[in-house]
């Protein structure tokens, strides 16, 4: 079977490797870039000099896929797809035009940063963070002594992460967001405020609850400020981190789309065209917390979707169990993780929920020479079924592993009542007899 794969980042790489486990498959990979596998989440680490070499932000290369048997067509732009005749039309790096037929087509075209159509958008010094080249431009700008104050529009994960990296380079940072707090796509207000306080405590200026209205330029045509609904703010550089939209233009009117424009896929990653698969940020997912199709653009989801599509194209029969949108962030020593949906998100999705908050230290305060600290958590469950639909944690400790357990709980429709009797081991080195997870569940039952 001949398979054409358009796009070769996280989802595409995972799919390619699985597809090639079947030696009877012929795989042609097309990508407009000269490289693959850039870890975009590492841009902030690079800017903050926690990663010294940008080469460390790539985990594979085109030659590695070619060695597995893929025909790699890099710096190739797919201009259109003839779905009726199953032909991909493309243009090479030197402008040559050519075609590739296919038996099955996999679209892994990812997402594009949202670019606000504001006055002054063409000024120099306005950046986005998605591709490696964009990250390189921002990293290079940090060495410019003229750049003293950086404005970041958008206080989601990417915005907060790059804010830390820039602050670590000694620059002033002012953050803008229409929401009243940072990270509100993933956390409720009571948890988001912990990150706000953390950012302020490390020298960032937060201007939240404001809409960006335009960029202010100087005589040289370079950005010199940001105009918002709250005022005007002088900056030497702007980074837009508003969010992303699915890059699904190739589907045209032929492939059915989700409400946000992403390719609508089933749980085998097949689109409305049975010969076309879609994976990664350009496609929908099945949200187990909501119990329906949704859109959650995360690298982990992209890889998983690629594995599922690739396995099916290799001759297996696999369906996605759904995703929970598990995520985490670590900024200036504050760690936050979440999975499923928050109370705030539940209202938006029309899911009636209840929740419980609990806070305790990790281990007994009397234990010496052991890292200790407070852990705050929130567990969210559906009111009628009592199944757990989300959880949030914040701590100075590394509490990242615990969210995997809650991700599984959401996937398996585990109830808050079952959680109260979960077999959690005890050892003074690791936790208390009255483990905070058990105590939170008991509190939920009693209230």
TrEMBL record:
SUPFAM superfamilies: FAD/NAD(P)-binding domain (SSF51905), FAD/NAD-linked reductases, dimerisation (C-terminal) domain (SSF55424). GO terms for molecular function: oxidoreductase activity. It is an enzyme of class 1 (oxidoreductase). It comes from the Bacteria. Its cofactor is FAD. It catalyses: 2 NADH + O2 + 2 H(+) = 2 NAD(+) + 2 H2O. Residues 333-431 form the Pyridine nucleotide-disulphide oxidoreductase dimerisation domain. Keywords: FAD, Flavoprotein, NAD, Oxidation, Oxidoreductase, Redox-active center. It holds the Pfam family Pyr_redox_dim. InterPro entries: FAD-bd_OxRdtase (IPR050260), FAD/NAD-bd_sf (IPR036188), FAD/NAD-binding_dom (IPR023753), FAD/NAD-linked_Rdtase_dimer_sf (IPR016156), NOXase (IPR058076), Pyr_nucl-diS_OxRdtase_dimer (IPR004099). Residues 1-306 form the FAD/NAD(P)-binding domain. Its EC number is 1.6.3.4. Belongs to the class-III pyridine nucleotide-disulfide oxidoreductase family. This is NADH oxidase.
């Amino acid at each position: 079977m001949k398979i054409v794969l358009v796009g070769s980042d996280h989802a595409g790489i995972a799919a390619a490797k699985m597809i090639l486990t079947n030696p009877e498959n012929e795989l042609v990979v097309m990508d407009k870039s000269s490289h693959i596998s850039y870890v975009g989440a590492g841009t902030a680490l690079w800017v903050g000099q926690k990663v010294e070499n940008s080469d460390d932000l790539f985990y594979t290369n085109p030659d590695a896929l070619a060695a597995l048997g893929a025909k790699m067509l890099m710096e190739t732009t797919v201009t259109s797809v003839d779905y009726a005749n199953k032909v991909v039309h493309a243009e090479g790096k030197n402008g040559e035009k050519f075609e590739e037929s296919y038996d099955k087509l996999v679209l892994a075209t990812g997402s594009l940063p949202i670019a606000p159509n504001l006055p002054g958008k063409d000024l120099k010094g306005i950046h986005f963070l998605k591709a490696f080249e964009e990250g390189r431009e921002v990293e290079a700008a940090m060495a410019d002594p003229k750049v003293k104050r950086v404005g970041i529009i958008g206080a989601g994960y990417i915005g907060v992460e790059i804010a830390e990296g820039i602050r670590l380079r000694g620059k002033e940072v002012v953050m803008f967001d229409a929401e009243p707090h940072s990270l509100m796509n993933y956390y409720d207000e009571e948890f988001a405020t912990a990150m706000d306080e953390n950012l302020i405590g490390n020298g960032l200026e937060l201007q939240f609850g404001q809409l960006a209205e335009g960029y202010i330029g100087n005589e040289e045509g370079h950005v010199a400020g940001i105009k918002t609904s709250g005022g005007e703010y002088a900056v030497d550089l702007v980074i837009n981190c508003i969010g992303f939209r699915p890059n699904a233009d190739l589907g045209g009117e032929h492939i059915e789309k989700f409400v946000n424009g992403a390719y609508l896929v089933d749980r085998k990653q097949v689109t409305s065209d049975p010969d076309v698969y879609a994976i990664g940020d350009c496609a929908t997912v099945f949200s187990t917390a909501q119990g329906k199709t949704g859109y959650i653009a995360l690298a982990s989801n992209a890889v998983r979707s690629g594995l599922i599509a690739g396995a099916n194209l290799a001759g297996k029969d696999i369906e996605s169990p759904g995703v929970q949108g598990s995520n985490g962030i670590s900024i200036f020593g504050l760690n936050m993780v979440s999975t499923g949906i928050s109370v705030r998100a539940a209202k938006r999705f029309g899911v009636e929920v209840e929740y419980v908050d609990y806070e305790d230290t990790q281990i007994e305060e009397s234990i010496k020479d052991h890292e200790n600290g407070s852990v705050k958590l929130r567990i969210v469950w559906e009111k009628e079924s009592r199944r757990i639909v989300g959880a949030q944690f914040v701590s100075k400790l590394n509490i990242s592993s615990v969210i995997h357990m809650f991700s599984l709980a959401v996937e398996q429709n585990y109830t808050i009542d079952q959680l109260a009797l979960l077999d959690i081991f005890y050892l003074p080195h690791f936790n208390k007899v009255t483990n905070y997870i058990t105590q939170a569940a008991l509190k939920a039952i009693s209230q």
